[in-house]
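Notebook entry, structure prediction.
Reason for the run: the old model in the group folder had no record of what sequence produced it. Starting over properly, with the input documented here first.
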Amino acid sequence: MMNKTEKILILDFGSQTTALIGRRIREFGVYTEIIAGDAPLTDAVLTGVKGVILAGSPESAYGEGIAPDKRIYECGLPLLGICYGLQRMTMDLGGLVEPLPKVEYGGVEVEIKLGGQKPKYRRFLAAFDAAISLNQILESGGAEETPAYEPPLHAPLRFTAWMSHGDTLTRLAPGFAQVGTSASGFPAVALHQEKPWVGVQFHPEVSHCERGSEILAAFVFSMCRCKREWTMAQYVEEVRARISARAGRNPVLLLISGGVDSTVVGALLLKTLPGEQVHLMYIDTGLMRKNETWGVKKTLEKLGAKNLHVINAETEFLAALKGKEEPEAKRKTIGDLFITIQEREVAALGLPESYFLAQGTLYTDLIESGKGVGKKAHLIKSHHNVGSPLVDAKRKAGKIIEPLDRLYKDEARALGRLLGVEEDVVARHPFPGPGLAVRIVGEVTKEKCNILREVDAIFIDELKKRRSPDGTGSLYDEVWQAFAVLLPVRSVGVAGDSRKYGWTLALRAIVSSDGMTADVYRFPMKDLLEISGMITNAVKEIGRVTYDISSKPPATIEWE
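New structure, fully documented this time:
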């Protein structure tokens, strides 16, 4: 935990987007800290806290959902309940929550009722007014002596919220008033008429939610009166101090994948600890992209790596994956073998048992693996650096350093830029830890890896060459993540005058700001057709190309 004098505290009840709330607020320049939803709210925990957010949960408030420390309702701080957080407040304070007759999911219109509200709530309700800018709200906080911000509001206030719940408030808790109603007729926004407590029955942290940033900003600045003091540069200083204190003089070994996350951690370690203390191990699994090993070595040497160990383990990984088709089985196999080989190679290096293992784990990795701050996050998929039993054992032994575990991908990129990592590396699209194994649906073979490597190289190279529709950059820069998936399906085609029976390929390109939600990239049809033709002409094993048009949710970004 970071030592900040002013912060917003977020209670994590297991939602997939809890840390996204923190990320949005950090973008405003305010530090956030996430703790388990049922953690004791001691004086030490509440030191410097200006407001508390009760986040969402996959559970029901009347079921197995956990409850916060009752001190939260006695501490006098502003509270914001988001979805489950509002339901939790309702149940705890004497209201009633029951199942909806029909689930509210996705974009739902909400109308705000202004009549009869006290002037002190106008600052929060201003968040719902499209005529009031985010900057106006950001500037409304600060020192306590700042004059109250009570803007004129332009009724009626309607916007499209992003909902994901199967329960509703059937009786508000005493003292609360309903000020927002969904198009389905259910409570969407409620506030306490005397205390600084508000709640929303949707997710303002999700980019699909209209006025979402404004709602969070109104709570942070207009209700909590926070100052904009936190920066990524400050994070660098604090996390380096934590690494130095944690590692001491013990060797630190980082498993480098070649992606943004582990490379940023490598740069962070090399700028924090003596070069001789940092060991960088790159395991070539045979599941990497074309020319990956050469590129990784070049990047790390530029960053000043002195102890770089490159292990060729293609034969071992392909043998372990033989016959395995189920995604979780493949991920577990790769994760376990990663650590097995790492331990074997470390033993060969002669490092002492006191060595630390560093990883580029992001918060999204932890959340999708059910490893959030609290105990209620649901498993979406295992990550090789999170879900493996061997990694869990290392973590429990206190021998893992994960300096990015509260950051999102775009924040890791910002950190890399501050550390001097080259833009080509920092701007690189995400690549999964298990590599091409989770982009080959079904059994993984060397032949399939070679096919997918060639396809990937063509696809990514063309995205970098081709200009975006507005001409300001490349197609690669417009896309959050692009890749190809080899399907276990063959289809009939024609090559010249001959019958061709080739593999089917799916191209995927999505846009996102954090990886927690994603939209399909609306590919210019000319580029998509030309790239498809280039792939089928250059890679003879591919007979058909499709384009994946699934968003997240309901689909995940990767297929497996």
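Summary: Confidence is low (pLDDT under 50) at residues 377-384.
The old model has been moved to the deprecated folder.
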